[in-house]
Design a protein that fits this description.
The chain is of the alpha+beta class. It has helices at residues 25-36, 58-68, and strands spanning 9-19, 39-44, 50-57, 76-85, 93-95. It has one domain: 2-Layer Sandwich (Alpha-Beta Plaits), CATH 3.30.70.
Length: 97
């Protein structure tokens, strides 16, 4: 049984729709991901959605995906689409412009 931290790492690519722009969704996502030790990025899309990638221990990535359903206090989330991929060694969490 391997103890390697890479074994339980996963990557979730998330698209969040609803009232998720102009409500500090990206900043709250960044802060929450950093608190949980999850790497990746978040950005606004031209169609009004927010796109994010979360990478890290599977349990923590799942917590971030769950968090996206509520998001920042002012957000009104309609839908969260998630695709899972192999980790790409994201380091740290940032807001992409």
């Amino acid at each position: 049984m391997s103890d390697s931290s890479t074994d339980d790492r996963t990557r979730a690519h998330v698209f969040v729709s609803g009232k998720v722009q102009g409500v500090y969704y990206r900043a709250n996502t960044r802060d929450t991901a950093r608190e949980k030790g999850v790497s990746g990025w978040v950005k606004n899309l031209a169609d009004g959605r927010v796109e994010a990638v979360f990478e890290g221990p599977e349990e923590r990535v799942e917590e971030m995906v769950e968090w996206c359903h509520t998001g920042s206090p002012s957000a009104d989330v309609d839908d969260v689409e998630v695709e899972y991929d192999d980790p790409e060694d994201e380091d740290g969490f940032r807001i992409r412009r």
